[in-house]
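Let's practice the habit of predicting before peeking. Look at the sequence and jot down your guess about where helices and strands might fall. Then scroll down.
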Amino acid sequence: MPHAENGDMSSQMTNGDTPSSQFVDHIVSYPVVSDSIETFKSNPYGQKSISIAEHGYKSFVAPILPYAQGPYGYVKPYVHRADELADGGLKKVDETFPVVKQDTQQIKGTVIDLAFMPLRMAGEGKNYVLKTYSSEYKKCGGDGIIAGGKAIITTSLIMTSDSLGWLSSFLNTKKEQTKEAVKEKTNN
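Done guessing? Here is the structure:
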């Protein structure tokens, strides 16, 4: 009886071929995916899930696989082509986002840095404003409501001046880039 053969999910053969996938091999080669799989396998809940899936495979799928050999022969070229396309997509991801090939800890550090960047920027901005206000408060006499009011006004003028200076440098850079792009397009 063909369904009497027992094997686990990793060694099952269909039409005499050992199952392989360029896509799966490629995605498992990413350090983040590989580390995630190892973490899942080492977790007791992950081990139990794998055990249940393996048992379900042996009970329900393995007995039917020999009967699927004929129909699989018809769809095998399409499955192989889909695998090649998916692997090609991952190669494109590798080219576009080389960060996916980095070590898991590097990626984790980058994500954490990006996640906390707004807080860091807000903290730096707050410190700059408070430092500027403190400096202006001392310049205005440093005592009383009048000095505080003058310090608030001069601090806001300094912040406006700094913002406009940054905006001006940003726009000048973009203006130069636009001029170069127009010159390049008109020369071609």
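How did you do? Residues 144-187 form the longest helix (44 residues).
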